[in-house]
Write the structure tokens for this entry.
Amino acid sequence: MKVLTIKQPYASLIIEGYKKFEFRSWETNYRGKILIHAGLSKDKNINKFTNYNLNYIYGAIIGEAEIVDCILVDEDFNKKLIKEDKLIYGSNHIGIYAWKLANIKKYKEPIYVKGKLGLWNYDLHK
């Protein structure tokens, strides 16, 4: 199954249903289920999300989602994102890709595994 490694707090924001778009500099044609892997690193702005009361797990698959679209962010779409949630989408994403995520599911138990760059593969039935 395809996996995407994401820094904290963004992995947890996705799994808890707050963040519906993941931003990448590259486009993907892949549509379908992916596993969400919380990487070992954390964003320098992690403290601004304390009001969400997130439980951060590092170095593990913490859930799954489905990539349903990949949108090149223009000025109008960027404004829409900021209007939706300025804290989560507050920075400028113009010129990069927003991967739209749906059908998000949090796993009860994390699966500890080393992450990788890009979309990578993992056998859930190991």
Observations:
- The first strand starts at residue 2 and ends at 8.
- The radius of gyration is 14 Å.
- The helical segments are 10-15, 75-84, 86-89.
